[in-house]
């Protein structure tokens, strides 16, 4: 019996005798199956191979990034967000070992895990069991949980306050339950938004974008982008961190609104003629 991990997306599955026939997360439009075919590993194999290690870096006061080197699967970044006496792990990565656990304990541990969307569920249950904490996932994305656990708490509605000044907002878009995290007092009181890739910081890091599928370049409709931008318009945040270490350094709340306007103009044929 083993808990297989999809090498392409990094999702860990429930205990099974054999590897799954396919990965449902990779087999639909928002992801992809490796052209060389479906491949699997396990966390135990990753640990025994001694190839991987996690890097925990302080990004700014109260915010630490966690990445795996060399990059594994999608290669996303997870974050520890410190708010008062509450430490949240935002999004998750597949690799976990005792060294990582000890590093995080030195930072005060974690009190909860929250996810932006299913592509980053990865080994979330391993992390929850290691720290004995709840995992918060929006009810709309329940079907994408490949390893069930008593640690998982499905939440409903449009927002969930986890601690004073620390709130998850459901925006939808990339996934129906797609969510972002607002830290009201982050960035020295100017506000932080952690977006996974529900809102994606692009190459020109003064702008963001919105997609249904990033690897397959399927856009979201204009009405959905407007809805997403409108939902966070009341929030104040100076900076955005996405899931791939790209940052809108300043004026991020305005950048989202300007980017939404540009995106919609492009879809409606008003931005350019070609």
Automatic annotation (TrEMBL):
<dbReference type="InterPro" id="IPR001279">
    <property type="entry name" value="Metallo-B-lactamas"/>
</dbReference>
<keyword id="KW-0378">Hydrolase</keyword>
<protein>
    <submittedName>
        <fullName>MBL fold metallo-hydrolase</fullName>
    </submittedName>
</protein>
<feature type="domain" description="Metallo-beta-lactamase">
    <location>
        <begin position="75"/>
        <end position="245"/>
    </location>
</feature>
<dbReference type="Pfam" id="PF00753">
    <property type="entry name" value="Lactamase_B"/>
</dbReference>
<dbReference type="GO" id="GO:0016787">
    <property type="term" value="F:hydrolase activity"/>
</dbReference>
<dbReference type="InterPro" id="IPR036866">
    <property type="entry name" value="RibonucZ/Hydroxyglut_hydro"/>
</dbReference>
């Amino acid at each position: 019996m083993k808990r297989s991990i999809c090498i392409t997306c990094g999702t860990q599955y429930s205990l099974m005798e054999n590897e799954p026939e396919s990965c449902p997360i990779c087999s639909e439009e928002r992801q992809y199956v490796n052209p060389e075919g479906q491949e699997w590993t396990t966390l135990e194999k990753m640990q025994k191979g001694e190839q991987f290690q996690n890097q925990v870096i302080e990004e700014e006061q109260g915010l630490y990034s966690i990445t795996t080197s060399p990059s594994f699967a999608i290669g996303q970044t997870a974050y520890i967000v410190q708010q008062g006496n509450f430490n949240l792990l935002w999004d998750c990565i597949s690799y976990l070992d005792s060294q990582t656990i000890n590093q995080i304990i030195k930072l005060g541990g974690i009190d909860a895990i929250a996810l932006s969307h299913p592509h980053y569920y990865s080994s979330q249950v391993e992390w929850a069991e290691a720290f004995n904490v709840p995992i918060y996932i929006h009810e709309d994305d329940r079907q994408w949980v490949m390893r069930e656990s008593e640690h998982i708490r499905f939440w409903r509605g449009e927002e969930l306050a986890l601690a004073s000044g620390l709130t998850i907002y459901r925006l939808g878009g990339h996934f129906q339950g797609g969510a972002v995290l607002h830290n009201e007092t982050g960035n020295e009181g100017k506000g932080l938004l952690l977006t996974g890739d529900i809102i994606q910081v692009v190459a020109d890091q003064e702008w963001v974008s919105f997609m249904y599928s990033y690897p397959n370049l399927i856009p979201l409709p204009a009405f959905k982008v407007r809805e997403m931008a409108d939902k966070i318009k009341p929030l104040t945040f100076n900076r955005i961190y996405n899931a791939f270490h790209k940052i809108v350094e300043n004026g991020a709340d305005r950048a989202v609104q300007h980017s939404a306007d540009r995106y919609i103009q492009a879809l409606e044929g008003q931005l350019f003629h070609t």
